[in-house]
Design goal:
Layout: H1 2-20, E1 27-28, H2 30-49, H3 56-75, E2 79-80, H4 88-117
Parallel strand pairs: 1-2
Helix pairs in contact: 1-2, 1-3, 2-3, 2-4, 3-4
Amino acid sequence: MALYDTIEEGITSVIAAYKEAKADDNKVSFSEIVAIGSKAIGSFVVIAESFSGLSSEEKKNAVVSAVGQLYDEVLAPYDIEKIPNFIEPILDKGIKQLLLALSDGIIDAIVALYNENGWPDNNTPDDNTPDDAE
């Protein structure tokens, strides 16, 4: 679909920024996974919203797809502290499914928040995305 091809560059740049920022010890806590996921979802919503002429559902589907990609490329490789390595793949799969399921509501909440308080100028909440992410 054209939407996914068009915003792929912006999504890739956000994911690259999070990959660069990961901890030196390659470990992350569950709360850090939630924080990274939340910031990234907000970034993806801003990127998707910058494309006019697309339905809300198309934009939401693109963001959910980007969330899955973010999890696979950035969050899943982390070693989750205090979780034995033989259990971690099962937990990773469950966390990804939960994140994807929750993304629908999170996206709606972020859009409502931005609609009420104003949209950012196509920057991520922590300014990791270049201005030319379109």
